[in-house]
Amino acid sequence: LDYIRRLLRSYAAYVCNVQRIAQARCPVVRFCHKQQKIFCELSINNHLAVANTELVRYFLLFEPKLRSLLCTIRLWIKQKDLLGRGHRFNTYTLFWMIVCTLQLDNKQLPSVQSLAERANHKRQYGPWNCSIPDLNQIERNISDVPIGK
């Protein structure tokens, strides 16, 4: 991670606030893209983080309306000054709150367990079953149902 930190610092025209966080559960290097003002965390050999990112991507592709819903709620939360650091929400938390609501209240999204059960290729990391099916592998039954109904 020190090498990556030094490498990122050599691109000072593009990134800023490069710092190594060694005490994290999985050590990371944090930095910010100057022009886009995007904060990033980079870790190595964190299979669960990769599987989590793939699961987020899966839900966003499975239900395209989810992105719009997330952006709308995020904007509202931001206007109420409830988005940010400290005792506020972040986009990741909002995403999972919305997914959970859509899974429980009106079954508009499949559960993570049902996704793992339907996957053709099993991926296990320690005790965690991180299997998800290909998008074309499961039948979408919500394409005509507006989110929130």
UniProtKB/TrEMBL annotation:
InterPro entries: MTPAP-like_central (IPR054708), NT_sf (IPR043519)
Domain Poly(A) RNA polymerase mitochondrial-like central palm: 5-59
Coiled coil: none
A biological process term (GO) from this entry: RNA 3'-end processing
Transmembrane segments: none
MF annotations from Gene Ontology: poly(A) RNA polymerase activity
A Pfam family: MTPAP-like_central
Annotated protein name in UniProt: Poly(A) RNA polymerase mitochondrial-like central palm domain-containing protein
Originating species: Adineta steineri
